[in-house]
Structure formats: C-alpha cells, structure tokens
From TrEMBL:
GO terms for molecular function: ATP binding; ATP hydrolysis activity; ATPase-coupled monoatomic cation transmembrane transporter activity; cadmium ion transmembrane transporter activity; metal ion binding. It comes from Mycolicibacterium diernhoferi. Residues 631-766 form the Hemerythrin-like domain. Residues 123-222 form the P-type ATPase A domain. InterPro entries: ATPase_P-typ_cyto_dom_N (IPR023299), ATPase_P-typ_P_site (IPR018303), ATPase_P-typ_TM_dom_sf (IPR023298), ATPase_P-typ_transduc_dom_A_sf (IPR008250), ATPase_P-type_domA (IPR059000), Cation_Transport_ATPase_IB (IPR051014), HAD-like_sf (IPR036412), HAD_sf (IPR023214). PROSITE patterns: ATPASE_E1_E2. One of its GO terms (cellular component) is plasma membrane. Gene3D superfamilies: Calcium-transporting ATPase, cytoplasmic domain N, Calcium-transporting ATPase, cytoplasmic transduction domain A, HAD superfamily/HAD-like, nmb1532 protein domain like. Its main location: membrane. It is a multi-pass membrane protein. This is ATPase P. It comes from the Bacteria. It is found in: Cell membrane. Belongs to the cation transport ATPase (P-type) (TC 3.A.3) family. Type IB subfamily.
Length: 775
C-alpha cells in the first residue's frame, strides 16, 4: 500500500477509533466511580482526555497548514486546560464530543472523489486501419490525420474524421444528448465518441485520438473537477468569530480573577459541541432522509451547497424529456389517408432496429392499425428503410425531397420546424405520399417538479442542450424556463455552467456522458442514474437513483431544510454557550458543572438537528391502497386511449381536405370512442378517483378544475354525437363542416391538455417510476 493511500485510510479510521476509545473511557470511569473508586475513575477519564489531545492537535495543525483556524483549537485548549486543573470528567466529556463530531463530519465529507473511469473505459483502445495491404489493428494513439479507419456496427468512433462511406447512421447521444440517430452523408464530419448505429463505415481521420472530441470530454471533466471550489465547513465559518471571542473572554477572566480554573471553565462551556455535533447531525439526517426517497447525496458538503443553490441548469434529452421519440402526427398527400400512410410506414419499419422506426411502429399499434409483413427489406444509412409492402415499394426515412415537391410537403416541413419535431417521409413507388412527425415527449413530472423547485427557492432555470433550437424552444416554452441555449457541445455546456456560477450558486442536472463535464463544473452536479450513464453519475454530487425527476424537488427541500436546521442548531448552541461563558467568567459555573451544562446544550441542539429527518412536503402524499389502485387503473386507461385519441385529428384532417367519404368512417369511429370509452372513463374519474384524491391532496378543490374540464368535454362530445347522427340521416357533411371542425379540434386540444394535467398532477403521485407520457 502506498504512503498516500495509507495516510488517507488512517485519516478515515482515526475518528472512529477515537470515538470508541473516548466512549470506553467515559463509560469505564463512570463504572469505577459507581463502584466507589473515584481515583481509578479520574485516571480512566484523564486517559480518555489524553487520547483525544494528540489527534486534536494534529487536526489543528492540518487546518493551520490550509490557512484555516477552526473550532478544534477551542477543543484542544479545553482538553489541555481540563487536564491542567484536574477536571478529568469534563475533559472526558469534551473528548467524546470531539470524537463524535469528527466521526459524523467524516461521514459528511465535502465530496467523494470523482471516478472518471466510465468516461475513459468507453473509449476504444484499438482501431482497424485500412492500408494498401488490407486491414490492421493498431492502438488508437498511433492514428494520425489522413488514416482510413473502419468502424464496425455498434462500435465507438475512435477519432474525429470525415465519412468516406456513402452514408452513415450515428448515435451521437453521448455527445449531444439527442436520442434520435443522426444521418450523415459522405464528406460530412463525424466526432469520436459517436456510436455507429448502421452498417460498417469508413472514415478518414482528421485528428489524433488525443486531439479528438471524446478525449476532450474526459479532459474537461477532469479540469472542471479540479477547479471546483471546496465547501468551507459550516463549523469553521462560525469559528471565524467564535474562536477569538472565546479566547478573549477566557483570557480576560484569568487576568481579572487570577484563576486558571475560571479560564478553563470558560473554555469548557465554550467547547463548540453544537458545531461539532449539531451541524453534522442535521446534515447526516438530511442525507439519510434523502436516501430513503432514492436520492443519493455523496457528501454533507454537497447537501449544503444544494441547499444554497438559486440557479438550476438543465439538460433536455433524457432529463426533462423521456429521451425516446414518439410518433405524434401523420400528414398525408392528396389521395392518401393518414391511416394508410401510417400503415405502410409502420409495415416497412416493422423489423427495423432504428429508434425512429420503433416510434412509428408503436404509433401504428397505439391506433390499432393492422400491419402487413414486409419483404425485400433494405436498411440504408442516411435514407432509412425500403421494403415491399402489399406489392408496393415503400421507403420511410429522412431521404432527400424532390425539387418539385408538393405544397403539402412544405407545410409538413414548416410544421416540423414550428413543433421542434423530427420528420420521417413516406414514399410509395418513388412518389411522396406522406410524413410522420415525431417528438421527444416531456416527462409527465417535469413541469410539476420545476414549479416545486421555484417554490423552494430556485429563481433562475437555464437549459443547455446539444439538440436543435426548435425542439429546445418548444420544451422551454412548456416549462417556462428563463433562458435556453441549443446545439451546445460539452465544452459549451461547461462554459455555460461556469458563467452561471459567477452570479449565483448553481446546480446542474443531466443524464448523459456528454453532461459529465458540466456536472463536474457546477457547484453541485445532479445525475439521473435511471436514464443516464455511469459517467454522469460518477461526476455528480447528487444521484437521483430512481430516475424520477420529481425527486430533484424533494432533494432541494431536504437540503434547504437540513441546512436551515444546521444553522439554527449551531446558532442557538453558540448563543447558549455565550451566555454560559459569561457566567463562567464571573465564577458562577465551575468546569465540571460547565461540562454538564454544555451537555444539556448539546442535547438541546442535537434534538433540534434531528428534525431534519422529518422534512415536510417531501415525497408523494401517502396513498391508501384503494387510491393507489384507482390511480393505476386510470393511468393505464390513459395509455390505452392515447392512440384512439388521434382519430379526432385524423377525422378533422379528412374533413378539412374536403374528403367527406373518407371523413365519415373516421367520424363514426371518433364518436363511438368518445361515447363508449372516453365519457365512461371521465364519469368514473368524477365518481371514484377525484373523491379518493381529496384526502391526500388536502381538499376536494384540488380536483375541481379537472371536473370542470370534464363538463366541457361532455358538452363537446354531445355536439359531436349530434353531428354524426345528422350525417347518418343523410345530411351533407359540407353543411356541418365549420362547426364539426371546431368540435373536433376543440375536443382534440382539450383532451390533450386534460390528459397532460391529470398525468402531471395526479398520476405522478404513484410511488414507482412512471411510464413516458405524451404532453
């Protein structure tokens, strides 16, 4: 074992060993006193006091080497003074308090060493270099600009380069956080750290491994960790004024009275046990309370900083969004219905491993669209999937649009840009027939979490994302963020975090490897381990182990309350000690009585510090079994209905385009769904769920808004049903078109908002991780 490792280990064990020795001495002396051996008791107590003197002096010397004058100096003087004047019981009590405080503080250290192994281990050590004689495997350190490198499927790109293959499909989430695969064509740049999500590709190196993007991320994390300022111990901040005051009072009492015992009595009652114990107890209590709800805070220092944070920096993909795209809208060209476009696209993509393909297939299944079996399937990097479906050649993906593209395609592009959506074009026999728009949906607990954070004291929220500006703006508007910056590289994120730190204590929350440097650069880094990587968790001070974003608000409340109680306990303890010091200086309190009085003060402040174990407003309200079962039932019904809800928009689209014959079957389906499924669901919520929620939410008024929305939904549903009945009797849909469109669009929008509100306000009360929900 090296000397430095031995020293570090000894430093961790010393407080525990000292606590065991001093407690044994205090108990052994008490036993000797009880059986009538006061001389033996004093010897044992003095031994316990001596055992504490040496490490206490060592700690004072260590603090002085760091240019800090901490509270341990008062404890050393009190220990030495107690021995000098024969107050051995007082010395033993002070020794126990010193050892206990050091042990607790060791459990609440500023921060654990950041382990960046997850970043470095992800980087490949070897690469396949192509040369005239064939392929050779070489260490990545030997690659130089101009080398031709082959990257196999699923492999990490070892160096920055330029794509030599016709096209490539890349998973760049480690760099940008964006969950949708990037399509790159020949001649485009590729960055190290990206994963090849398609067929084997060839790149031409443009940099060495050391100068490439991914190595830069590792260096940024290391530099940011090294530059993070340490947190000053809470006790030391109080000691800045308490220590000189104590020495002045003790010295004055000695000078005036001429009695060293009086000075020792002042030091004994001034022994900073409220600082050595109360603050660590409050912090450790906060750490324990956080751990019970699945929030791992690595150190007491991290908890203290989290309690002071007023600025929150957020990543987007996988942090406030689910990180998994969903097919949310289908657009169709003339002569094609949305259902047919989606059916062909999902059938072609049925067996594709692409994340967008999965989203399209899931959208078709949610709408209960029957799929066909594709044949002659070809996966093409950069263009998507081509397959034969029911005798037609169907292509789905991000393929180039023809120069004479139809007008509806421009509308689709505009819609995708406005909504921040990814677009997958659908062609049949080389004719563009439709498009599927996909979004990365907001987490259902995101908005509620951010509201709670603002209530807890966060006054500025900033998003830093590697994603494009349109989707970032959409999320920023939904969450009411104060600022957002898109297309941010890991270096940009670090710079952004450091800029925020210049004006306020800043917390950063993220989930990916690309967030690790920014997490390390923040005053306190927070990782969602449930959705993120090991690297982000290792670089963070706080880990949301369940992957639930709402635990971030709980952690903030716990941190603020723990810090407030720690300050309160220390302040009250110091105030009482100051009063006791005045009496001791006047000769009214001897050393042993002062030690016992100090014990009472300690018990008072420790009892107060333990209140940090019972933080109010943390976690979800307690649910009885019936309420929890009802929430699960209605949450599951929402999931089942989500696909059927899209029939409203599909019917409105066909009606708007003037295709009455196609619109009528969809109107029948929409009406049947609303009358037979949706309205019974809403009535059951009013009768069963909302009354059950009154107790955990504190009032029936908490669900009053949702009941009012039910009434509006019911009114529009009756209107839709009346229109369908008229159409069944032979009335022309053209005559009903204007009001019917208003009805369909109104229902579609109202139900979207209503579902989102219920999921955000009620379904997030469920104890375990929630399914992704569309916002």
């Amino acid at each position: 074992m090296s000397g430095s490792r031995f020293t570090a280990r000894a430093g961790r064990l010393l407080p525990v060993l000292l606590l065991a020795v001093t407690l044994s001495a205090l108990a052994g002396g008490g036993l000797a006193w009880w059986i009538g051996s006061p001389r033996t008791a004093e010897q044992i107590w003095s031994a316990g006091t001596l055992a504490a003197v040496v490490p206490a002096i060592w700690w004072v010397a260590a603090a002085l080497r760091q240019h800090r004058l901490g509270t341990d100096l008062i404890a050393v003087l009190a220990l030495l003074g107690a021995l000098a004047v024969g107050e051995y019981l007082a010395g033993a009590l002070i020794a126990v308090m010193l050892a206990t405080g050091r042990t607790l503080e060791s459990a609440a250290e500023r921060r654990a060493t950041r382990d960046l192994r997850a970043l470095s281990e992800r980087m490949p050590h070897d690469a396949r270099r192509l040369h005239a004689g064939g392929l050779e495997t070489v260490p990545i350190e030997s690659l130089v600009p101009g080398d031709r490198v082959i990257v196999g499927p699923g492999e990490v790109v070892p160096v920055d380069g330029v794509i030599s293959s016709p096209a490539a499909t890349l998973d760049e989430s480690v760099l940008t956080g964006e969950s949708v695969y990037a399509q790159r064509m020949s001649g485009e740049a590729v960055r190290s750290g990206s994963v090849n999500a398609g067929a084997a590709l060839e790149i031409t190196a443009s940099a060495t491994a050391a100068d490439s993007t991914y190595s830069g991320i590792v260096r940024l994390a290391e530099e940011a960790a090294a530059q993070s300022s340490p947190v000053v111990r809470l006790a030391d901040r109080f000691a800045a004024w308490f220590l000189p005051l104590t020495l002045a009072v003790a010295g004055t009492a000695w000078l005036i009275s001429g009695s060293a015992e009086r000075a020792v009595a002042v030091l004994v009652v001034a022994t900073p046990c409220p600082l050595l114990l109360a603050a660590p107890v409050a912090v450790v209590s906060g750490l324990s309370r956080a751990a019970r709800i699945g929030v791992i805070v690595r150190s007491g220092g991290a908890l203290e900083v989290l309690g002071k944070a007023t600025t929150l920096v957020l990543d987007k993909t996988g942090t406030v969004t689910t990180g998994h795209p969903e097919g949310t809208e289908v657009l169709s060209g003339p002569g094609w219905t949305q259902t047919e476009v989606l059916r062909l696209a999902a059938s072609a993509d049925r067996f594709s491993p692409h994340v967008v393909a999965h989203a399209i297939v899931d959208a078709a299944r949610a709408r209960q669209v029957p799929l066909s079996l594709p044949t002659d399937v070809v996966e093409s990097a950069g263009t998507g999937t081509t397959a034969t479906v029911d005798g037609s050649r169907v292509t789905v993906g991000n393929h180039p649009l023809p120069a004479d593209r139809p007008e509806w395609a421009d509308t689709a592009l505009l819609r995708a840009n406005l909504d921040g959506a990814v677009i997958a074009w659908v062609s049949v026999d080389d004719t563009l027939v439709g498009a599927v728009l996909l979004h990365d949906p907001l987490r259902i607990d995101a908005a509620r979490t951010l509201r709670r954070l603002r209530a807890a004291g966060i006054n500025r929220m900033v998003m830093l994302t590697g994603d494009r500006l349109p989707p970032a703006e959409r999320i920023g508007a939904l969450l009411g963020l104060d600022a957002l910056y898109a297309e941010q590289s890991p270096a940009d994120k670090v710079a952004g975090v450091r800029a925020e730190r210049e004006t306020a204590v800043t917390a950063m929350v993220g989930d990916g490897v690309n967030d690790a440097p920014a997490l390390a650069a923040a005053d306190v880094g927070i990782a969602l381990s449930g959705y993120g990587s090991t690297a982000s968790s290792e670089a963070a001070d706080v880990v949301l182990a369940t992957g639930r974003l709402d635990r971030l608000a709980d952690a903030m409340l716990i941190a603020r309350r723990s810090r407030r109680i720690a300050l309160q306990s220390a302040g009250v303890g110091m105030g009482l000690s100051l009063v006791a010091m005045a009496f001791a200086a006047a000769g009214l309190i001897p050393a042993v009585a002062g030690a016992l009085l100090q014990e009472l003060i300690d018990l008072t402040v420790i009892a107060n510090a333990l209140r940090a174990l019972r933080t109010r407003g943390v976690g979800s309200p307690a649910l009885d079994e019936n309420t929890e079962n009802l929430l699960r039932r209605f949450s599951a019904e929402h999931d089942r209905m989500r696909g059927d809800l899209r029939v409203l928009g599909a019917a409105a689209h066909e009606l708007y385009e003037g295709r009455s014959s196609e619109a009528l079957p969809l109107l029948r389906r929409a009406d049947a769904f609303v009358q037979e499924v949706l309205l019974p669901h809403e009535r059951a919520e009013d009768r069963n769920l909302y009354p059950a929620l009154a107790a955990p939410l504190g009032s029936t008024e908490a669900t009053a808004t949702m009941s009012r929305m039910h009434a509006e939904i019911s009114s529009l549903a009756r209107r839709l049903h009346a229109h369908v009945l008229l159409a069944e009797k032979g009335n022309s849909l053209d005559a009903q078109r204007e009001d019917l469109l208003a009805c369909l669009y109104g229902l579609d929008e109202l139900l979207s908002v209503h579902f989102a509100a219920e999921e955000e306000n009620y379904f997030t009360l469920l104890p375990e991780e929630l399914p992704a929900a569309e916002q």
